[in-house]
Here is the input.
Amino acid sequence: MRIVVLNASSKKKGGASRCFSRILKLMLAGCQVTTVQVRNQSDHEDAFTEMEKADAVILSAPLYIDGIPAHLLEFLQQAEMMCREKNCSFRLYVLSNGGFVEGRQNKIHLKMYEAWCRHAGVTWGGGLGIGGGTILHVFCILLPILFVLRLIQVAAIFWTNGDISGGEIWNCMQGLCIYVFFLLGLLLHEGIMALGIRKGRTMKNHYTRVWMPSFLFLIGADIFMLLAALCNGTLPHKLFRKVYPDTEKNG
Ligand SMILES: Cc1cc2nc3c(=O)[nH]c(=O)nc-3n(C[C@H](O)[C@H](O)[C@H](O)COP(=O)(O)O)c2cc1C
Here is the structure.
C-alpha cells in the first residue's frame, strides 16, 4: 500500500502539522510511506508525482481563519486538475489542527477537503480535527526531553545509593504520566485513523483536543503567547495596541 503524507505547514521547519503527521507515520510502520512538503509552488510537482501512484494521501494542515491556508488553495486547484486528468484513485485523509482548544473548530475546514474530493474525483477517507494544536505540539517536544531527564535522575539515584526501589522509580516518572494524559486524545484518534488507512476504509470525521480543562488551557496558552511574543522582540503592551488602517486614521 502506497501512502503519501503531505505536510502543509507554512513553517519551514517544525510546526504542529508536521509533528502530528510524524506520529501517524509511526503508527503506519510497515507501509510504504513517502512524505512531501507543500509550502510553495516549487513543491507541487513532487507532490503530484507521488499522489498519482498513491492508494492513500494524508494531508496534515493547520487551520487558518477557520479555513484552508492560502498557500494550500493554489496547490489544491492544480491538484484537482491533475487528479481528474490522471484518474487518481487514492483516498484522502486529513489531519487539521487549530490553535483554539475545541477540536470542532476544524469542522468546516474538513468539509472543504471533503468537497474538494468530490470535484477531484477521489474518495474522501475521513478527517481528524485537533484542538489546542500548538500546545499539543509543545508537549510532543517536551515529553521525550523530560523522559530522558527522568531516566538520568533514576540513574543518578541508582549510582549514589547502589540500588533503587520501584517506589523511587515511580516518583521520578509520575509527572510524565500527566503529559502523556494531555496527549492521549491525539494518540487514540490518530491510532483509529491509522487503522482505517491500513484497511482502506472511509471513516466519519473525529474531533479531539488537548486533554486538559479549558481554563488551564487558557492560562497556559496566554503565558505561552506572551513568552513567544517576547522571544520575537514584541513587548506585551504592544500586543494590545490597536492598529488602524491609514484611511480610518486620517478620516
Ligand atoms: C494566519 C493564522 C490564522 C489562524 N487562524 C486560526 C483559526 O481560525 N482557528 C484556530 O483554531 N487557529 C488558528 N490559527 C492557529 C494555527 O492553526 C495553529 O497555531 C496551528 O497549530 C499551526 O500549525 P503549524 O505549526 O503546522 O503551522 C491561525 C494561525 C495563523 C498563523
Observations:
- The mean pLDDT is 93.
- The domain at 2-139+185-236 is CATH 3.40.50.360 (Rossmann fold).
- Residues 42 and 75 are 10 Å apart (CA to CA).
- The chain has one domain: 2-139+185-236.
